[in-house]
Amino acid sequence: MDERYYECQKFENLKFEDKVVENLKFIDCEFINCIFEKCQFLRCTFSSCKFDKCSITVLKIENSQMRFSEFTGCYLANVNWSELKSTGKLTEPIRKLQNCHLRYNTFINMSFNKFNFSDSEILGSMFEECSLKECNFRNCKLAETEFFKCDIRKSDFREALGYQIDILSCKTKGARFSYSEVVNLLNVLEIKIE
User: Fold this and answer.
1) What is the per-residue pLDDT across 138-167, written as a single tens digit (0 to 9) for each?
2) What is the sign, positive or negative, of the torsion defined by CA atoms of 52, 44, 112, 121?
3) Spatial distance between the Cα atoms of 47 and 69, rounded to a whole number of angstroms
4) Which of 153, 145, 134 is nearest to 184 (CA)?
5) Inter-residue contact 160 to 142 (CB < 8 Å)
6) What is the pLDDT of residue 115?
7) Mean pLDDT along residues 35-43
8) Distance CA 61, CA 43 (A)
9) How many C-beta atoms lie closer than 10 Å to residue 57's C-beta?
10) CA 156 to CA 80: how far, in whole Å?
11) Cβ(42)–Cβ(63) under 8 Å?
């Protein structure tokens, strides 16, 4: 099937539910108030696209990729972002997250160095084997969000709440934490603090 190509176009109020979306290529496109729910993406590419106030939930991804996309005011749930990495693995799917709410997202073997997650809500999600050096997680709600085998050196978790960092598998040198939450990091050591 031939690939359909869209460049520098704006899409507003689109609603894709339980659909198969295939052979589409979007370059520098903007999606506003769009809903992608329970969709299957086959052989699709999103490059340098912007998503504003969109809802993206329960995606099935096959042979698709996303590069340098920006999300503002979006609801993102049940997305495995590692499945959207480009084949060359030199570019990451997400360039920017601002005022977004994430639930049950998975990030495996991805690089977010110096990324600004501040004031985000990332719930029940997993960062595994990710490079998160010098990231800003200030004021984040991270309830039940796990960090496993990640490099979080020099990252800022002050005022962040609810995170679960495996300090035995993560590189933590120079990371900053609020006193009230740092005690939770010691849970993995199975010690008693009185």
Assistant:
1) 999 999 999 999 999 999 999 999 999 999
2) positive
3) 6
4) 145
5) yes
6) 95
7) 93
8) 9
9) 17
10) 24
11) yes
Domains of the chain: 105-194 (2.160.20.80)
Banded pLDDT at 191 (limits 50, 70, 90): confident
DSSP string, 65-111: EEESEEEES-EEES-BGGGG--TTSSS-SEEEEES-EEES-EEES-B
Residue 114 pLDDT > 90? yes
Question: How confident is the model over 131-135, as a mean pLDDT?
Answer: 96
Residue type at 131 in one-letter notation: S
- Asked if residue 102 lies in contact with residue 127, where contact means CB atoms within 8 angstroms, the answer is no
CA 184 to chain centre: 23
Backbone dihedral region for residue 174 (phi beyond 0: left; psi -120 to 50: alpha; all else: beta): left
Summarised one tens digit per residue, pLDDT across range 47-85 is 999 999 999 999 888 889 999 999 999 999 999 998 887
Chain centroid offset of residue 88 CA: 19
Kindly provide the b/e burial profile for residues 22-41, where b requires at least 16 CB atoms within 10 angstroms of the residue's own CB.
bebbbeebbbbebbbbebbb
Q: Which residues contact 90 (CB under 8 A, 6 or more apart)?
A: none
